[in-house]
What we know:
Keywords: ATP-binding, Nucleotide-binding. By secondary structure, the chain is an alpha+beta fold. Helices cover 28% and strands 30% of the residues.
Amino acid sequence: MVLGIDLGTSNTVAASLSRDGSPVLIPDANNKDVQITPSIALIEGRKAYAGNFAENLYETLPDKQIISFFKRSFGTQDPVYFDDDKNAWFSETVASLVLRKVKNDAELYLPDGYKQAVITVPAHYNDVQRKSVIEAARLADLELTAIIEEPVAAALFYGSFNKKIDEEIILIYDFGGGTFDLTLITKSGNQLNVIAKDGVNKLGGKEFDDIVQHSIREDYEKAFGNKLPTDKLTGNRLQKIAEKIKIELNDADTPRNISKWIMVGRDAFEATFYYDIYAAQATQLIVKTEQAVNRCLRSLGMQFSDINKVVLIGGTSSSKLVYNFWKQKVGPQQELVYHQPLSSVAKGAALYAASFSNGNNQEIVPIDLKSVSTYNIGLIMANDPRRQIDLLIHRNTPLPVSSKKTYKVNPQQTEYVNIELCQFWDPQEDVHKLGTIKAGPFSLMSEFYLEVAVENRLNGTIGIKVRNADNGKDIKFEFIRKASDHKYDYQQQKSMVDNIYLNNYL
């Protein structure tokens, strides 16, 4: 058996394959009617609650914070929570609690267990963020076969039963709880080709929630003349109320204003949510996704009219505001597809996991996945006053790909050479430093050429090799990520996860 996991910002979904090879969702172990796990956790001493447990318990633990949207902190090396003993919990560690919960659900649901496991990642994730997801799986004792990008997984599922899309250009529009991704794909038989990717980091359902939360705060201040309290229980309640109101506004068949009485401590007040105001602010967010779509198409010399199908996935895509926005954009020869936005990614991940299996199931079709580099990848010599980027790999180059750059080094002038590794879309705006390659010390005394080779693998992670270009010998180097006030230590974080009771089981 196989396991595909969509580790989402708002919700996590897992899927496997039935005996006939069709993907099925894995239910919650305690409630078979529930097939979605909220991506949240709550920690109390040596007990932790993940998913639905945390969602149902926060009222009884008013001094505990619901840890949510931790996925947005992948790759930052910044803690997302401090427990009662002042231990720092990183995004990878909190994510491992959710993964352990889902893993337990799968082990109880699948009688024969699973041999292949795949986790999805946003298409625009850089190397550090992708490795954070892999680290979360490692902390959860979940042995990964591969990672796959969320839009690609959704395309695999969509293409598994839709044979008419061969040779068409398909835009997978993935608007989730915390991120927006877009991927341009073509399909030919069992071969799936990713031709371009783009996205917007930190744009998703949370920003729609923030619109509602801001309205609640304003109504509270009007009613009582004070700012809304900032205690943990109020924050947890506000988060849940805002999410429910957002869904109600998004799903309205007929636009209408909504009034709700809200309790904060002993204070009760009426909050009014005006549909036109919400829709105008929400549309501004949707326009940002359109700008990313157009940017991606321009990079290929294409126009929106060149797209055959737009497939909407991700929780935020379920909003009628999003659907209606794009319905007005597609032409008569194009098709807008609203296709299982909450489950297609996990189901596609299960199909991808099955493609690694050596089983005899004739229903499983091997998948030939061809992807491209999400970002430009370059190097910056640390002591270069011009801060010039040496571009090694262009974005949208087919993967895997490798490239190299040589630098003249004089060991008599320097014992070490520091070279920054970076990824970016636009070198003028969004250069993201992944870390510093610190090569040395050098045994040679004369000048030589130092060669830095960078590989962008099929899963989007980056490998580095450093050697002496004159004699071909490897050179010792250290890859240093950004400095942080709280150092991530795997053994410490693993011990914290292993020694905590999760959802009333170890």
